[in-house]
Structures are given as C-alpha cells and as structure tokens.
Specification:
With 318 residues, the protein is α/β, with parallel strands linked by helices. The chain folds into two domains: 187 residues, inorganic pyrophosphatase (n-terminal core) (Alpha-Beta Complex); 126 residues, Roll (Diaminopimelate Epimerase, Chain A, domain 1), CATH 3.10.310.30. Helices cover 41% and strands 18% of the residues. The strands form two sheets. The protein has a six-stranded mixed β-sheet with strand order 6-7-8-9-11-10. The protein has a five-stranded parallel β-sheet with strand order 2-1-3-4-5. Strand 1, helix 2 and strand 2 form a beta-alpha-beta unit. Bound molecules: manganese (II) ion. The site of manganese (II) ion has 7 residues, from helix 2. Manganese (II) ion binds next to helix 2.
C-alpha cells in the first residue's frame, strides 16, 4: 500500500493535499507534513496543501493558495473518511485521488484508499509512510507529525495508541531529536479566558442518572467570556477522568451557522452511532454533531443516556 502511494506521488508533477472541514491539528499536520516531505524529496514538483486554516494552529504551518490544476493533478486527502467533508472546491475535477485516513470506513471515493482505522492519528500513518518509503524527512516535518499524533491521541492517553504508535514516536524522536517539551508548550499553551470558560463549564455541567455530563454554552456566555463557538470543543478533553462521568458533551450555540456545535467524548460507551443521527459522526470514543437547535441537542443527550445505561448494565454483568 505505501509503495503504491509512493509510486503515485512519484508519477505526478502537481499534487494537491486536502483534509476535512473544521480543521484540527491532526488533519492540518498530516497534510502539511506530507506536503513538506514531498517537496523535500522531489524538488521540482508543485505541491499544495489547501483548505480553510485557523489562526489557532498557525504554529503547525501555513497553507497554500491553489495553483493551476488539470486532469494530470493528483489529489491526496488525509484524515477524512467521506467525500462531502473534504475541505476543497470541485473535488470531482480531480481524476486521480488517494485517501489516507484513520477514521472508520464511511465511503470509497478515491482510487487508492489507505485506511488504517486502528492508527491513533492520520499523522501516525504519514509517519509510517515516510519511514517505509523513500520520502524524506527533517526535524521540522518530524515535529509537525508529532504534534498531530499528540493532539489526536490526547497526549498518548487513548487506547488508539498501539505499540506501533510508540515505536514510531520513538523512531522520529531518535532520528530528528526535537524537544517534546517545546512542542507541548506550543500546542497546549492557552489564553486565560479559556480557562475561565472551563471553570464555567465545570460548574454548570449537568449529570444524568447514567453518567452523561453535558455542558450547554449559549452565545451570550461565549460573548461574556470573549471566546468563539469553537472554544468549548477545544476544552472538552480536559473533562476526562471524572469519576461520575463516562460520557461528556459540550453543546455550543453557533449563531453564525444557525446550529449547535456538539462535541462528545466517552470513556466506554460507543457514541459515534448516536452522533451520526444528528448530522455528525467520528470515532467510537470521540465524535461531533451539528443539530439545529438546543431542543434537538437534548434529544441527542437522551440517546446518549440510553447508550450509557446499556453500557453500565453490561459492565455490571461482567
Ligand atoms: Mn485525525
């Protein structure tokens, strides 16, 4: 599979690399690291990393304006299981496509589909791809890959971290000698206003009988704390390891897009099936959804509560 991907990369002179909408560190880091590695290996190729960025992740690297493309352009999509969530215009004009993803399979839309749904991150797959082909790497690329891996595995806390995850991290650390502390400072430093918002969220968390904790953040509250509608979703991982909570949810009013941004995390119950019912999806233990109203979001909470109840029952019987 990696050989096939490498040969395709070698063959095409123009390569566009895209990833999912609603950019996150793994998506961004995987596309930027792959771009930089291809540029380093093949000096004459035109390689573009495209999509809407976010100033929050500017430390990961910058995106490109798309140059001229034609039917001989290769599109590589990282970290995205379905076509409609690829952050690119006119995806159908690309005649040659490769997917590199670690989400559960949703649909086939590329000629080469490299899906490793046991990988911790898209960056882990890119790490393995680079390690096992003639694609080149340097310290900067290694750092970028490490950032994506650390972010998607929540600092190696998730079960998605396999022995391979750790050996790849070790391999890159050994060969490119970057500073783990420096990277973590870059990634996890945050503004005080977000910490204050986190305090508000903890104080106002509502707990159901079956261990679902949900935190509602209205537009008024966002204004009060001077944060945007993405902030609660950035904080959600901090609510892990709470004794009474096995599933936790942020529901944030997004006035601009007339929707509620829902992020869901779990310490046991499988939640992505519920997310899919409400205009969302994702991983088994980490998902998102976009219901239209708080009312609809509360139905989602009810569904999660049922899943949690079922899970608690099974756990007790074990
Ligand atoms: Mn990812």
């Amino acid at each position: 599979m990696y050989k096939k991907i490498y040969n395709a990369i070698k063959k095409f002179d123009t390569i566009v690399i895209a990833r999912h909408i609603g950019v996150d560190p793994d998506a961004l880091a995987s596309q930027i690291a792959l771009r930089d590695s291809i540029r380093l290996t093949f000096k004459d190729k035109k390689v573009y990393a495209v999509g809407n960025g976010s100033s929050k992740f500017s430390h990961i690297g910058s995106l490109d304006k798309l140059g001229k493309i034609d039917e001989k352009t290769l599109l590589i999509v990282t970290d995205t299981p379905d076509k409609k969530r690829v952050d690119i215009e006119g995806i159908d004009q690309y005649k040659h496509k490769i997917k590199i993803d670690h989400h559960p399979f949703v649909e086939e839309f590329c000629d080469i589909e490299c899906i490793e749904d046991t990988a911790s991150s898209a960056c882990e797959i890119i790490m393995n791809l680079i390690k096992n082909t003639k694609l080149e790497c340097n310290k900067e690329i290694a750092e970028t890959l490490f950032i994506g891996l650390v972010a998607d595995s929540n600092r190696f806390l998730f079960d998605s971290c396999s022995p391979r995850t750790f050996s790849l991290a070790a391999y890159y650390l050994e060969n490119y000698k970057f500073s783990v502390n420096e990277i973590n400072q870059k990634v996890y430093k945050r503004p005080l206003k977000e910490v204050r918002l986190e305090g508000y969220m903890g104080e106002n968390l509502v707990l159901t009988d079956n261990g679902v904790g949900y935190m509602k953040v209205t537009n008024e509250i966002l204004d009060k704390f001077k944060v945007d509608s993405a902030s609660p979703g950035n904080i959600i991982n901090n609510f892990n390891f709470i004794d009474e909570v096995i599933v936790w949810v942020t529901m944030t009013e997004d006035i601009k897009n007339e929707q509620i941004r829902v992020s869901i995390r779990s310490r046991g119950p499988v939640i992505n099936k519920v997310a899919e019912k409400y205009n969302g999806g994702g991983h088994m233990m980490a998902s998102g959804a976009k219901p239209k109203t708080f009312e609809e979001a509360m139905k989602l909470i009810k569904d999660l509560d049922k899943v949690a109840k079922e899970y608690n029952k099974e756990e007790k019987e074990r």
